[in-house]
Amino acid sequence: MELSCYFPVWDQLTQDQQAQLTGAAVCRKAKKDTLLHSGSADCLGLLMVESGQLRAYILSDEGREITIYRLLERDICLLSASCMMKGARFDVAVEAEKDSSLWIIPSEAYRQVAARSAPLANYTNELMAGRFSDVMWLMEQVLWKGMDQRLAAFLLEEAALEGTDTLRITHEKTGSHMGTAREVVTRMLRYFQSEGLVSLKRGRIELTDLPGLQALAGQ
Question: What's the mean pLDDT in 122-146?
Fold first, then answer.
């Protein structure tokens, strides 16, 4: 996939700027569960997903995770290059949720081009604003939505991502996405099952009442 596919402002860059980005970009393969970026001390660079799926998450001091967003084909992760933004530090980790292929533009190379290109600098600000909106949305969910609403929304999101109503995901992994304990997820899923919303199998969660889950999630 060409780099131009990731940047709507590509045609507004000079040929030298395009060449600098293209020359700096490195293609990398990542197996499922590979940790690609581990926080503000690790300034990997700009991540661009060619195929597969990545997860950006926050890790608490107690070791609890919460997913802040997913990255799919043609998505860009700017937080993995936060060191190029003065005064900005984000302790966000990024891992491959599926076997993935991605492009990486080192932070310094990208910063140099953005410093000389107003269109690229503006697009970078738009990317950051979009990710900030994702984080604010997550805070809103955690602060104002009940666990039942959040879990219903998560199950629906997973079904949409995987293209199936039968999810092969553990209760522990679900808890990691939501920033809560496995026991809380298990208790809530059993309640969902008693209400006919899901059917629980070993290592699987089958969504049996999509309209009911949508209503619960407020969708």
Answer: 88
The torsion angles phi and psi of 99, rounded to 5 degrees, stand at -55, 125
* Domains, the chain, with CATH or none: 3-137 (2.60.120.10), 145-217 (1.10.10.10)
Amino acid at position 123, single letter: Y
Which amino acid is present at 168? R
Phi, psi (5° rounding) for residue 38?
-115, 15
Structure tokens at 82: 């936060």
Give burial (CB, 10 Å; 0-12/13-18/19+) of 49: buried
The mean pLDDT value of the chain amounts to 90
How much is the pLDDT for 80? Answer: 74
CA 23 to chain centre: 26
Residue type, 88: A
Distance between CA atoms of residues 175 and 169, nearest Å? 10
pLDDT in tens, 181-214: 999 999 999 999 999 999 998 889 999 999 999 9
Three-class secondary structure of residue 14 per DSSP: coil
* Helix/strand/coil (H/E/C) assignment for every residue in 111-170: HHHHHHCHHHHHHHHHHHHHHHHHHHHHHHHHHHCCHHHHHHHHHHHHHHHHCCCEECCC
- Three-state SS for 182? helix
What is the model's pLDDT at position 5?
93
Residue 80, sorted as left (phi over 0), alpha (psi -120 to 50) or beta, turns out to be: alpha
